[in-house]
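User: Structure please.
Assistant: Input sequence and predicted structure:
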Amino acid sequence: MPKRMLTGRVKSDKMSKTRVVEIARLVKHPKYKKFYRDRTTCYVHDEGNESGEGDTVQIIESAPVSKKKRWTLVKVVEKSSEVDVAAMRASRRLEDARKADIADAAAKTAKVETAGAAGGSVADISAAE
């Protein structure tokens, strides 16, 4: 019997050398004859960690690799172009906070220099801060 080859989308890539692939399909209800969406989840062995979350991959049936892994990655059909918006926003906030800290430090340095240049005492400089 030939091994089955399926195409699906990587749902999770959080494990090393293991991918969770979701295979979507349409199924006809036996009684009502209406089509509905169903999905199958497969654990796939990815030796080189080639695929990432959101990628479309082709997988093939294989001998059991572990308790749940029964499939092996054949190739990455299409790389994902999805952008992690939450990560982008977090990095933007961090960058803005760093710029604000640098601006505050520069402003304090300028106050101390102007107070020192005006001939002020140590008490005047600390009061300027």
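The helical segments are 85-117, 122-128.
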